[in-house]
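Researcher: Next entry in the queue.
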Amino acid sequence: MSEAQCYYRSTPHLMLKGTVHVIIFVKSHHQIPNFVNTIMQLSLYYVRTCPFCVRVLLALKGLKTSVELKNLSGNRELRSELIKNGGKSQVPCLKITSGNKDEWLYESADIIRYLEQVDSNQLSLN
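Model: Structure for this entry, 126 residues:
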């Protein structure tokens, strides 16, 4: 049986206006992705014809952070979901699910800044 290893993750948290620090102990680095995915899930609502959405999508290409993409073009259900849960139909919109709380971030520059900060704090799985 191998010794447990310690991994550290620092994640920006909008509601707390600061950073949440998480320390986990695992016996294998293969256990980390499942644990990390339970901490935070990211979804980006967008339309391809919006230049601000394109700006965020281009920024995503250079990041390792996993983000679920939700294209609203021609999808009334997704648009209704965004309005019902986020409060407005503005895109781009990043839904940040942490535990049982959702946070909604709307401005492209703020979304990119947040994603870059999350990406720079990703756990190293090497």
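Model: The chain has one domain: 5-120.
Researcher: Noted, moving on.
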